[in-house]
Design brief:
CATH topology of the largest domain: Thiol Ester Dehydrase, Chain A
Number of strands: 11
Radius of gyration: 17 Å
Shape: globular
Order of helices and strands: EHHEEEEEEHHEEEE
CATH superfamily of the largest domain: Hotdog Thioesterase
Structural class: alpha+beta
Number of helices: 4
CATH architecture of the largest domain: Roll
Number of domains: 2
CATH class of the largest domain: Alpha Beta
Strand content: 35-45%
Helix content: 10-25%
């Protein structure tokens, strides 16, 4: 199955360059993934009520070909492109009205048991192979990150508005924490062409997070630590 919808860049989705912001891109992808799973009857709310589990993002790789501007219309296609014993792979493509690629994304989601906290097989959370559209996008991929510590640059405390209905820090909030360490002039003048996130552990309201930065030839890496453990790692290009 392919989930499709049309939209446009509203004012609240724009950054200082009056273009679709990286935060809005992540929000658009999260909404499409949620709506796709909802149309299949296996969304997060259903998973909690019916299967005693919750879907969480484990990885998200985003390629921004061109960020559309204010009021520009776009169309979105989202589908489950594959699965492994413990993950679903969901691809999202945002295109202009003329078919120009704007954003490509590949998300890995995992079903977490509400009682044990362990990862469950997707089939135990309502997934069926007939739900797949096995034609993955060819311009986006999940990569490996360096296993190095970075230089601590900021400390953030998780507040109530960062918590979602799974009662942990929403995945987009980590993007906001990380981007807030970069000056607006740099974000506006240089922009972001690739954004990839790996989610390791959950954090909750009241947790104090330390953000580390590591610059390499492959991009700028960030590590978000919670109580010394790596919660999220991120690569920006």
């Amino acid at each position: 199955m392919i989930y499709e919808k049309n939209g446009y860049v509203a004012g609240s989705m724009c950054d200082a360059a009056v273009k679709l912001s990286p935060i809005a891109v992540c929000g658009l992808i999260e909404d499409c993934v949620t709506e796709l799973l909802g149309s299949l009857g296996i969304d997060g709310v259903t998973a909690m009520k019916k299967y005693g589990a919750m879907w969480v993002f484990s990885k998200n790789s985003i390629k921004m070909h061109r960020r559309p501007g204010w009021l520009e219309k776009f169309k979105v296609r989202c589908f489950i492109s594959g699965h492994s014993p413990l993950r679903l792979f969901i691809d999202t493509r945002v295109e202009s009205e003329q078919g120009e690629p704007l954003v490509s994304s590949r998300v890995e989601v995992a079903g977490i048991d509400l009682e044990s906290g362990r990862i469950r097989k997707p089939q135990t959370v309502g997934f069926e192979e007939s739900m797949e559209h096995p034609e993955p996008l060819d311009d986006v991929a999940i990569t490996r990150f360096p296993k190095q510590a970075g230089e601590p640059i900021e400390t953030v405390k998780v507040r109530s508005t960062s918590i979602d209905y799974c009662f942990h820090t929403n995945n987009i909030e980590y993007v906001r924490f990380i981007l807030n360490t970069i000056p607006e002039k740099e974000l506006t003048s240089r922009g972001i062409s690739e954004l990839e996130l790996h989610y390791r552990i959950q954090s909750h309201e009241g947790d104090e997070l330390t953000i580390e930065r590591l610059d390499t030839e492959d991009g700028r890496f960030f590590i978000v630590r919670c109580a010394g453990s790596e919660a999220v790692s991120c690569r920006l290009v």
